[in-house]
Amino acid sequence: MGVYNFLQLLVTYVPLLGLGVFNGLNRELPFSLGQGNREEAGRFVAVSLYVCCTICFVMVVGLSLATYWARLMNNSLWFWGLGAFTSVLPLTFYRLYLEVTFRTSHDFNWLSVVKLVTAMAGLALVPLMYIDSWGGLLGRAILMTLLGVCLLWIKRPYRVWPMWDVLTFRRLLSVGLPIFIVGYLYVLFINMDRLIITSELNLTALGAYTPALLILQGMMILPTSVAQVIYPRAAESYGREGTIRQLLPILFIPLPIMLIIQLPFVLIGWFYMDEIIMRFMPRFESGIEPTRWSLLVGLVLSMTTPATVFNIVRKQRLYAALILFSILTVVVAWKFNVGGSDLLGVSIAMLCGSICFATLSAICAWYLCMRKTYE
Q1: CA-CA distance, 135 to 275, in Å (whole number)?
Q2: Max alpha carbon distance in the chain (Å)?
């Protein structure tokens, strides 16, 4: 499981390969649509597709070489893992491009359908892991990724050919690079638990942490879906109106709704986690307590959607400062053994950092929205 978790860790870093182009598209596409400039919007999409195809090709070549190296080393675990992720990683990157192009209310409905179908397929494919633990995990990852890409490709809103345009690329890069940098910092923040385990503990401990990671991934589906809807709508509204204050309800109204939805699952998991793991995943008994605390981490992180305002109004320095302070909070909590020096300590350190980030980002987002400023 340690190898698989490491490969999954690579998936979380896939968005960084775009070097900010997708981040720029995610902001500029709805902003241009809000201003009524559809020709410019189409040009943004075509240039982004060109960048996507180029990076996917490079990924396939690099991963194929890594797979061949694993074969030469007679390491079957890494050979099959890298071989499977030679398709998973490029498809994940292409899916990111497709998701960014879905900007209208009708598009958001289809995105919700895709996420629901993919989540249901993920549950339906769990028996593959009982048939063959390693092959089942890899097969499940490939099928889920392929299913999501196919569903998005069928309903893609922009059917354009890849196009290279230097000026458009520079525009996307100038807007997206600052967002990319803070995005990297945020990925670093949400992966601090795995980074601490890998550097301070070992791969065996990372494997025992698997239930906690699965819980976090599951709990982040809802807030991620909400953020994908909120971000373009807020950017389009900002492009159309020019003011920040009207973003306040868009950013904060979803918070109590997500709390109401997530809280029952957190309470059930908190009181019955030991029974659930011992019944369905007995090999991960040592991960019961970290998994229980990861429920709180997921609940707190689901309350961070107001932070999307920083990229919309291009306040990346403030956003970066909040993330760095939250990372520092995680490190300090771990080094001072707030929750211990084992896996439980890692989960509690992540909870401290998550509370810090959620609180500070909400306060700063509220302050920005209450100011009557213009771009």
Answers
A1: 27
A2: 63
Domains of the chain: total? 2
Q: Hey, what are 143's tokens?
A: 């099928």
d(C-alpha 287, C-alpha 255), whole Å: 29
- 285 half-sphere exposure, CB direction, 13 A CA radius: 4
310: containing domain: 191-375
Answer whether residue 48 is part of any domain: yes
Say whether both 199 and 153 belong to one domain. no
The answer to whether the Cα torsion of 365, 368, 372, 375 is positive or negative is negative
Residues 144 and 139: their CA atoms lie apart, in Å, by 9
Cβ–Cβ under 8 Å, residues 353 and 330: yes
DSSP string, 324-343: HHHHHHHHHHHHTTSS-SSH
Buried (b) or exposed (e) across 141-180, using 16+ Cβ within 10 A? Answer: bbbbbebbbebbeeeeebebeeeeeeebbebbbebbebbb
> What percentage of the chain exceeds 70 in pLDDT?
95
Q: Would you place residue 244 in the very low, low, confident or very high pLDDT band (cuts 50, 70, 90)? A: confident
**Alpha-carbon distance 151 to 117, whole Å?**
9
- Residues 101, 105, 106, 110: what is their CA dihedral angle, to the nearest 10 degrees? 70
- Residues 253, 368 within the same domain: yes
Last residue of a domain, one of 140, 172, 204: 172
Q: Which residues contact 356 (CB under 8 A, 6 or more apart)?
A: 325, 326, 329
The length of the chain in residues reads 375
Q: Say whether both 263 and 198 belong to one domain.
A: yes
Handedness of CA 57, 63, 67, 72 (dihedral sign): positive
**For residue 236, is it within any domain?**
yes
Alpha carbon distance 75, 83 (integer Å): 12
**pLDDT, tens digit (0-9, with 9 covering 90-100), for 48-78:** 999 999 999 999 999 899 899 988 888 888 8
Residues 111 and 244 in one domain: no
Half-sphere exposure in the Cβ direction for 231 (13 Å, CA):
27
Same domain assignment for residues 350 and 225? yes
Which residue is listed with tokens 């890298």?
Answer: 82
Asked whether 2 and 206 are in contact (CB, 8 A), the reply is yes
Is 132:14 a contact under the CB 8 Å cutoff? no
C-alpha span between 335 and 194 (Å, rounded): 15
pTM of the predicted protein model: 0.70
